[in-house]
Design brief:
Largest sheet: 5 strands, parallel
Bound molecules: flavin mononucleotide
Strand content: 5-15%
Number of strands: 7
CATH class: Alpha Beta
Distance between the termini: 40 Å
CATH superfamily: Flavodoxin domain
Structural class: alpha/beta
Radius of gyration: 19 Å
Helix content: 40-55%
Order of helices and strands: EHEHHEEEHHEHEHHHHHH
CATH topology: Rossmann fold
């Protein structure tokens, strides 16, 4: 009997659905036991979010400040053959609940020396969060062996509108009657996810995860678009500066930083709207001129090793 632990956080269930569809082939196998650990915060984050609460969590998310979690109920003596971590990026960083777990004492003992597969379900920007995940796993002496991502496949500006309607308005289906449904498509969940699950199953049965990410990449478990890669790069350079600027006025929930939070809430979507078309054009030209650089970067982000810098 082989044992898998699935650690995850989800607000609306999208991430859990990605996990269930991916792990379906493993669940069907009676030689595999799957345990779940749902990460729950002491104070639940709101859904839908109010405008202020949503943008107010930005500095702590970017800075990786942990929040309080509900006690972790798990048999500490269980020896898992594989650990799956399901998480969402928040503001190009690891979402606060999962990042808080990664900084806990329990994570130190559970993840030590274990092979890890990460499964992400999000809008479309996860590269920065996954870089932070690679670093956290390295600190925990865990070995990342695979990464699978599910994204909203709509154009960037469309999914910017639909994600805001989703997180701030609680509207998933056809916002204003014209926009597509927010989130990961049913086709990706039903058709592609089990293919990834079968790859994990084959490697788990051999107890050897070497080369698994390459097999996942060949089946499109990670798709990296140059325009989103450039856009994220800008965001990742600027976000810590703005997070510092807001934090200087106070901690999460503080009245004193409200004005700066409000400004960020206007500047961020506006900047994406202005920059997105420009970057899309740039991303068509730049790879022609800097082909080798782009190819190298895409290859790096699709893979599981962490560059030293
Ligand atoms: C505070 C917050 C910030 C987010 N930031 C990002 C982001 O940087 N990149 C992204 O692709 N999605 C982002 N999202 C969307 C989430 O990744 C995810 O799609 C959404 O929260 C639903 O997932 P869940 O129901 O599994 O929690 C964000 C969502 C929230 C609530």
């Amino acid at each position: 009997m082989q044992k898998i632990l699935v650690i995850y956080y989800t607000q609306t269930g999208q991430l859990k659905s990605a996990l269930d569809n991916t792990l379906h082939p493993l669940k069907e196998n009676n030689q595999i036991q799957i345990d779940y650990l749902e990460i729950k915060t002491k104070k639940a984050y709101p859904y839908p979010w109010s405008y202020i609460e949503f943008f107010d969590i930005f500095p702590e998310t970017v800075h990786g400040v942990p929040c309080e979690l509900e006690p972790i109920q798990l048999n500490k003596n269980e020896n898992y053959d594989l650990i799956v971590i399901g998480y969402q990026p928040w503001f190009l960083s690891i979402c606060v609940p999962i990042n808080s777990f990664l900084q806990s004492e329990e994570a130190k003992s559970l993840l030590n020396n274990k092979p890890i597969v990460t499964i992400i379900a999000c809008r479309n920007m996860w590269l920065g969060a996954q870089e932070k995940m690679k670093l956290q796993l390295k600190k925990l002496n865990a070995k990342l062996v695979g990464n699978i991502t599910f994204v909203d496949r709509s154009a960037n500006l469309i999914s910017l509108i639909t994600v805001l309607a989703f997180v701030l308005g609680g509207i998933k289906e056809k916002f204003m009657g014209i926009f597509p449904k927010y989130g990961v498509s049913d086709m990706d969940l039903k058709n592609n996810a089990p293919i990834f699950g079968n790859i994990i199953l084959n490697n788990l049965q051999k107890n050897n995860f070497d080369g698994m990410q390459q097999l996942l990449i060949e089946k499109d478990a990670v798709i990296i678009k140059p325009n989103l890669m450039i856009m994220e790069g800008r965001g990742r350079a600027l976000f810590p500066l703005y997070a510092n600027y807001i934090s200087k006025k106070g901690t999460q929930g503080s009245e004193k930083r409200r004005t700066r939070v409000r400004i960020f809430g206007i500047v961020l979507p506006t900047a994406i709207f202005i920059l997105s078309p420009i970057i899309t054009i740039l991303s068509r030209i730049a790879p022609l001129l800097l082909y080798k650089k782009f190819e190298k970067e895409i290859h790096y982000y699709a893979n599981i090793h962490l560059k030293d810098n």
